[in-house]
Amino acid sequence: MNNQNSYSSGPDEDRARDLLNRSIDGEISSSEKEELEVLLASSAELRDLEEEFVTLKRLLDELPEVEPPGYLQDSIERQVRLPVRDSASLKKPGLFGAWLNANWLRTGFALAAGVVLTVGVYEMGSEPISVSDSVNLSGTMVKPGLVDKQGTLLDSIQLNTDQLNGLIELRSEGDLISVDVQLKSDGPSEMIVNFAGRGLEFDGVNRIQDPVEAVSVLDGAIHLSGSGEQHYRLSLRRTEEVQNGMPLELNFFADNTLIQKAELNFSNF
Amino acid sequence: MHKDHDAALVNSCIEGDRLAMSQLVSQYQKPVFNAAYRILGNMDDAADATQTVFLKVFEHIADYDQRFKFFSWVYRIAINESLNQVKKRRPQESLDDSQASPWQGPSEVLESARLCQKVQDALMLLNDDHRTVVVLKHISGCSYQQIAGILQLPEKTVKSRLYSARQLLKKTLLVETTNDRGTENNEQSK
């Protein structure tokens, strides 16, 4: 190595380093390039460093682009909630929606008056609401009383995280499958159930215990949020032969942060 | 990274247009995923980070200051989220062979994958500050000015960190590669 003019110990060190860096990154002017050429011509050490940096740049630039998993875009889109454009653009969700809206309205009045009322229940087994009918459907529903668990247990999930604990059970009875949810969280929590493409349609939510829960159905995903101890039952009805074996995907959020993903398998249903 | 196009999509999202949201996800999920992957060194963690990034982006999209470029804002969230996940990172995975170029022969695929893994391993040895500037420069293709905007640092600091990162990479990566080549040559001469 030629040490007759070592840049690392000379007064041009900072300047040479800056020029070399910018040359490697393609952010150097023609006059600065000429200046660097002069420095390179006088320092073998700088030339060695340039060669090493060029090799490094090649290694880094040649790292292959990695394809995101195929499910990612769909998964993101299902979970994103945007502001609802305006009330006129909301689809009418049929009988269920009419019932629901009436009760939400009453709940709203009750809350406005500072009184929490139990205002009704969506009866499972009444007319189901399909995904296409429930875009942007959102609101609050309340239900009195406790409903016993029904049907055959197909799968279950035990949640045990710092923010969220609970048990989720998947049961079947006839064409109906139900997701029994018991959750406990210190702060606000949310469960999102993706049922799109599973040959199922949303059939309602049966609230079993505790204050107002927000429920929305969006693009084949059901969003259920609440806080504290929550106990509710989500019902889905089979509309066609389930052949693809895709499990229900569940995402659990606490304080708006995804804390756990899980699946409920109903391939034997 | 077209500012006007992005701005139009962002405004549509604020109005509740899910198609616009889908277009933004489609446009940015790959660069965000790649940046996250190179910072985290793990595909699953990168997918988790990318998902969280977009949920945060759209949760706060009404707060986004449109004087700045949308991609800079997204990248800033992506870098912060990736660095958050570094703290709870799972053990690293190796790159799959399938990520190598498909036209290469089997031995070239292996060699390429091995080299890529070495570079990734060397990246993971850098501290977060150094790894972040290297990823934004070499993986995301950002300029000094863009990196400075994303990380909210002076350009001078960006350049200084890049230089330091390269010095460290040089020590770990080039020395190791040279040693490997020497070992291979020795084995071939036996």
Portion of residues in beta strands of chain A equals 25-35%
How many helix segments of chain B? 8
Oligomer: heterodimer
| Residues in helices of chain B, as a percent range | over 70%
Main β-sheet description of chain A: 9 strands, antiparallel
Unreliably modeled segments of chain A: 1-6, 85-146
Give the integer mean of the pLDDT values of chain B: 83
> Which structural class fits the helix and strand makeup of chain B?
mainly alpha
Q: Give the helix tally of chain A.
A: 5
Question: Main sheet of chain B?
Answer: none
User: Helix-strand pattern of chain A, N to C?
Assistant: HHHHHEEEEEEEEE
- Distance, first to last CA of chain A: 75 Å
Our Rg estimate of chain A from Cα atoms comes to: 30 Å
Number of strands of chain A: 9
**What coarse outline of chain B follows from CA principal-axis ratios?**
globular
**In one word, what is the shape of chain A?**
elongated
Question: Can you write the helix and strand succession of chain B as a string?
Answer: HHHHHHHH
Provide a concise account of the structure shown:
By secondary structure, chain A is an alpha+beta fold. Chain A has helices spanning 13-24, 30-42, 44-61, 72-79, 94-112, and strands spanning 137-141, 152-160, 164-173, 176-194, 200-209, 213-218, 221-238, 248-254, 257-264. Helices cover 26% and strands 34% of the residues of chain A.
Output the keywords.
heterodimer, A: 269 residues, alpha+beta, 34% strand, elongated, disordered N terminus, B: 190 residues, mainly alpha, 76% helix, globular
What does this structure look like?
The complex is a heterodimer of chains A (269) and B (190). By secondary structure, chain A is of the alpha+beta class. Chain A is 26% helix and 34% strand. Chain A contains 5 helices and 9 strands; from the N terminus they run H-H-H-H-H-E-E-E-E-E-E-E-E-E. Chain A has helices at residues 13-24, 30-42, 44-61, 72-79, 94-112; strands at residues 137-141, 152-160, 164-173, 176-194, 200-209, 213-218, 221-238, 248-254, 257-264. The longest helix of chain A is centred in the middle third of the chain and has 19 residues, at 94-112. Chain A is elongated, with a radius of gyration of 30 Å. Chain A starts with 12 loop residues before the first helix and ends in a 5-residue tail after the last strand. Chain B has helices at 3-14, 18-40, 43-59, 70-86, 106-125, 128-139, 144-151, 155-189. Chain B is mainly alpha-helical and 190 residues long. The termini of chain B are far apart. At the A-B interface, helix 1, helix 3 and helix 4 of A face helix 2, helix 3, helix 5, helix 6 and helix 8 of B.
